[in-house]
Structure formats: C-alpha cells, structure tokens
Amino acid sequence: MTVFVGMVFVMGIDSKATFAFEAKNFREASELCKEEWVREDLAAITSNGLPLCSSTAKLTVRRADQAEIVIYRNAAMQAQTEDLVLAYLVDLDRA
Q: Distance (Å, rounded) from C-alpha 14 to C-alpha 56?
C-alpha cells in the first residue's frame, strides 16, 4: 500500500510543467533542481522528438495543483515503490 507522506510539487523546465513528484517540503523539492542526474536524465528523455531539457534550461519547482496531484498519486500507486516517483505531465516518446 502506498502511503503519501509529503506534498506534491511540479518541476518546470523553462516554465513548462514537466513532472510531478513528492517531497517533504519546498526546500527539499527545490534541491532536486540542483541534482546533476536530474538534468542528465531529462536531457536523455524526449517528447515530440526533442529532449525535455537542455544544458541551459531553467529548472523551477512549485506546488502542484489538484489535477497534477491526481496524476502524481495515480502514478505512485501504479509504481508501488519507495523510490522517487516522477509522474510526467508531458507526452514522452517511446524508446
């Protein structure tokens, strides 16, 4: 059973809401923007043939709205993991 213990946030890439995730607080959520692996992973993922993130993209975090929270919780329930769940809010290209 998945237990939600934090708040849901959205990472924006150049002002575009890209994925929702859970964190304990805004400070913890903001730290994700500084993680190099996040930028590297986002640069490797594409949407409509374009990478989600460039090396110069601005990463931001904000609280998720109600619709984004529902998307995140559905993804977290399906994932059934204790690891960080990223619920993408954009269409991803298939590998």
A: 9
What DSSP line would sit under 36-89, residue for residue?
HHHHHHHHH-EETTEES--TTPPEEEEE--HHHHHHHHHHHHHH--SS---EES
Q: How far is CA 90 from CA 17, 27, 52, in A?
A: 8, 24, 9
- Measure the CA–CA gap between 89 and 10, rounded to whole angstroms: 9
CA angle in degrees (0–180, nearest 5) for 63-70-13:
45
Q: What is the pTM of this model?
A: 0.90
Over residues 5-22, the pLDDT tens digits come to: 689 999 999 999 999 999
